[in-house]
Specification:
Layout (H helix, E strand, L loop, with lengths): L2 H17 L1 H19 L17 H12 L7 E6 L8 H15 L4 E6 H4 L11 E8 L3 H15 L1 E3 L2 E6 L1 H35 L2 H25 L9 H29 L4 H28 L7 H32 L10 H7 L7 H4 L9 H12 L1 H16 L7 E2 L11 H12 L8 E6 L4 H12 L4 E10 L2 E8 L6 H12 L5 E6 H35 L3 H13 L1 H12 L4 H4 L7 E2 L2 H31 L2 H30 L5 H33 L8 H10 L18 E2 L4 E2 L11
Parallel strand pairs: 6-11
Antiparallel strand pairs: 1-3, 1-5, 2-3, 4-5, 7-9, 7-10, 8-9, 12-13
Helix pairs in contact: 1-10, 2-8, 2-11, 6-7, 7-8, 7-9, 7-24, 8-9, 8-11, 9-10, 9-11, 9-24, 10-11, 10-19, 10-23, 14-24, 14-25, 15-21, 15-25, 19-20, 19-23, 20-23, 20-25, 21-25, 23-24, 23-25, 24-25
């Protein structure tokens, strides 16, 4: 693709987005208002599950048991507390019978049974003070949640001589969904004003600070509308709303920072407003586009997994990334066209700059348009220092990151349960009472579905052989209905412990005269782990291959894409180490307010990898594009690295701090998985921006030298035809002396005054 063709395309795009700026903003306002209406109530249509593989044998067995034996799969438990009277008191028993009959008469409730009907020891507390009424609410998550909302108030609380609490898996999921929505609202109320304050500190100008916030709000509202539409055709996890808020604000800030900064630089050089917008789109606009593509690819990789929990984050992530980029590349230039030099209005730091101005300096500090904080000289000096001792910094930084990640070698995978909820949540209180006070942990066993019919002797023979397995505590059944039967097998130890997971394999391998399939919490966990392990290489392969291609198109180098992928992966080690050390092992659990379960939910590391890797590439593209631009201008490799870090170091750090604040706000959630997601990604973002981009990247690029930019002839020609870079639209820049740099620390001379307004 020729330079003329590229320039004409970019020029055409510039004319398109700047021709009718008022009309563009008006249309955006109308679309945003429609998105508010379309996305209203999206949280109520989302599910709080999605960790199971829909094609797994455990899922098939669960559905078959629900259809043939509803009572075998209770998801609603009423905990009846009889107090000092005991559950066998005649008045208590009479009231419990009435409650059981009322529950059985409710629409959407099947398989109702109770201790008072069955006299099953598993449904009676060991101290005799509590007993259970079990039932199944039919339908998908949304329908089951609506049924629970309708009937729970009728049964909860004082009922004659007893006190009733509502629990069971359906209650846990429903309460988790409600808490997540409450926490998300609180996180937004924290994140929005704090983000605005930080943006004012970064930009100085209140007007400039409002622009990224507006882009983020547009992206979030638009994504909610997209998710509302997706819920009409498939399941979407309520957890995805947290990612929508975090990425909507975080990426909007990233993209707007980059674009507004470049626009203000152009104005500071004396460019006309329209020319400044055009140059900004040709340079920063291209980088934003490539950055958005790399983040979207990382998130899209979650589409290969069968669990709708992971797929939901792909839906939300792709939508919010593309909307944030579109708003930054269409709405933001239109706003800049209308604002012009007024983008520097309401400079809240002018008073402090005047106080710092020395007499006789001509008021330069005050007359210069307010820019993001800092001149960037410190970042240039940091890069110079690192590159002087590149082997030391490279080895020390890489070793430190590897050491921080070592706890992840001891990771144990589990499944989410009631302990995700705060200790005061009713559904958790019920489950804890059952867990600690009832024999056999009702609901914690494995169910073996038998199909095809068999004789009583064949069922008895199978039962005896299963009872003899070393990991079996007890086996009940069979319960027979026509050609179907099921057994309940209680494993030794924890319901999802290693013994229980091993027992799943033993039961599936045990021969029988009929077809068998196994379900239960441990079986779902085993199948989920297998599905992730099966699809993980494909997901990682998609991320790596597409990232390599995109970075190559941006740089024309073979080595830089490899470095980018390797260093991004290394930047995530601290996050994964902290996840195990804090959330699995329970360190800091008191301070952070959660209960450690001794394992990590299976899908969380996959989700955190995809999100954090994409965000790391976001910052990596910003840095690499500026280094590439300067290298193309002068051909001095070391100078280009120093210059690139000088010009983007503060920008990346500011963006990372703001995104970390948003993620920490998400991390204040009372649900453990959301807390882990928010705090873990916040740590990864900070480590990437302040350690990897500041220390490891310049050290590695110093060690690779000019070989950094090497590519074989065929690939060079491919890049010349199809590739882009931020600086290639400025063929006269070097001749005009723009961005000239003197000295190793990147001090700017002549027309390089722009550096004084850059982060």
């Amino acid at each position: 693709m020729s330079e003329v063709n590229r320039g004409s395309r970019i020029g055409g795009w510039t004319r398109f987005v700047t021709a009718r700026p008022r009309l563009s903003l008006l249309v955006a306002l109308v679309i945003t208002a429609l998105a508010v209406v379309a996305g209203s109530g999206v949280g109520d249509r989302m599910g709080s599950g999605g960790w199971e593989d829909p094609a797994a044998s455990s899922t098939y067995a669960t559905q078959a048991l629900e259809r043939e034996f509803p009572a075998s799969q209770p998801n609603l438990l009423l905990l009846v507390d009889a107090g000092d009277k005991g559950v066998d008191d005649p008045a208590v028993a009479a009231e419990a019978e009435r409650l059981t009959e009322r529950l059985a008469a409710e629409e959407g409730v099947v398989g109702v049974g109770s201790y008072w009907q069955t006299r099953s020891p598993a449904l009676r507390a060991e101290d005799g003070g509590e007993a259970l009424i079990a039932a199944r609410i039919v339908g998908k998550e949304k329908e089951a949640g609506e049924t629970l909302e309708r009937i729970a108030p009728e049964f909860r609380g004082a009922q004659g001589p007893v006190e009733v609490s509502v629990g069971g898996p359906v209650a846990v999921r429903h309460e988790m969904q409600a808490i997540i929505q409450e926490d998300l609202l609180r996180a937004e109320l924290i994140a929005l004003p704090v983000t605005l304050v930080l943006l004012v500190m970064v930009f100085g100008s209140a007007i400039a600070a409002l622009l990224p916030l507006g882009i983020g709000i547009v992206a979030i509202l638009g994504t909610n509308a997209v998710l509302r539409g997706i819920t009409e055709i498939t399941d979407v996890s309520v957890f995805a709303q947290n990612l929508t808020t975090a990425l909507g604000l975080g990426l909007a800030v990233d993209y707007a920072l980059f674009i507004v900064r470049r626009f203000r630089e152009e104005l500071a050089e004396g460019a006309q407003v329209r020319d400044a917008v055009g140059t900004t789109l040709r340079t920063a606009g291209r980088t934003v586009l490539f950055s958005a593509l790399t983040v979207a690819v990382s998130l899209a990789a979650m589409m290969v997994f069968p669990q709708y929990f992971l797929r939901s984050f792909a839906y939300a992530g792709i939508a919010v990334v593309l909307l944030a980029a579109a708003a930054a590349l269409i709405l933001l230039p239109a706003a800049l066209m209308l604002l012009g030099h007024r983008v520097n209005s309401l400079d809240l730091r002018r008073l402090f700059r005047r106080r710092r101005s020395a007499p006789g300096d001509g008021g330069a500090a005050g007359s210069r348009p307010a820019g993001p904080a800092g001149s960037g000289g410190g970042w240039g000096r940091t890069a110079t220092l690192v590159m002087r001792r590149a082997p030391l910094f490279a080895v020390a930084t890489a070793t430190g990151l590897v050491l921080l990640g070592l706890p992840f070698l001891g990771v144990k995978f589990g499944t989410a349960d009631h302990r995700q909820l705060p200790s005061s949540a009713e559904a958790r209180v019920v489950q804890e009472d059952i867990r600690g006070g009832f024999p056999g942990s009702p609901g914690g066993g494995l169910e073996v579905l038998g199909e095809g019919g068999a004789t009583s002797a064949e069922y008895a023979d199978y039962r005896d052989r299963v009872a003899a397995l070393p990991d079996v505590e007890r086996i009940d059944g069979p319960v027979v209905s026509g050609d179907h039967a099921y057994f309940t097998v209680l494993p030794r130890g924890e319901a999802v412990g290693q013994d229980a997971q091993r027992l799943v394999g033993e039961l599936r391998a045990e021969p029988a005269a009929f077809d068998t399939s196994v379900t239960g919490t441990a079986a779902v966990l085993v199948d989920s782990k297998d599905a992730i392990a099966d699809r993980l290489p494909l997901a990682v392969g998609i991320i790596v291959v597409v990232t390599l291609l995109l970075v190559f198109l941006l740089t024309g180098s073979v080595l830089i894409p490899i470095q980018a992928v390797a260093l991004n992966a290394l930047s995530l080690t601290a996050m994964f180490g902290a996840v195990v050390w804090v959330f699995q092992d329970g360190n800091l659990s008191g301070l952070l307010g959660f209960t450690s379960t001794g394992d990590i939910e299976t899908t969380l590391p996959v989700l955190m990898f995809c999100v954090a890797f994409g965000l790391s590439m976001d910052y990596g593209v910003f840095l690499i594009s500026r280094i590439k631009e300067e290298y193309d201008r002068g051909g001095d490799h070391e100078h280009a690295v120093v210059f690139g870090l000088q010009r983007t170091g503060g920008l990346i750090t500011a963006a990372a701090v703001i995104l970390a604040v948003v993620m920490v706000a998400i991390g204040t959630s009372r649900v453990t998985n959301t807390k882990m997601l928010g705090l873990g990604i916040a740590l990864a973002v900070v480590m990437d921006a302040m350690v990897v981009r500041s220390l490891l990247v310049p050290a590695v690029m110093k060690l690779t030298g000019k070989a950094t930019w090497w590519a074989p002839g065929p690939l060079r020609r491919f890049h010349e035809r199809f590739g882009v870079s931020e600086g290639e639209s400025h063929p006269t820049a070097l001749a005009n002396g723009r961005d000239g740099v003197d000295g190793a620390d990147g001090a700017v001379s002549g027309a390089g005054e722009r550096d004084k307004v850059g982060v």
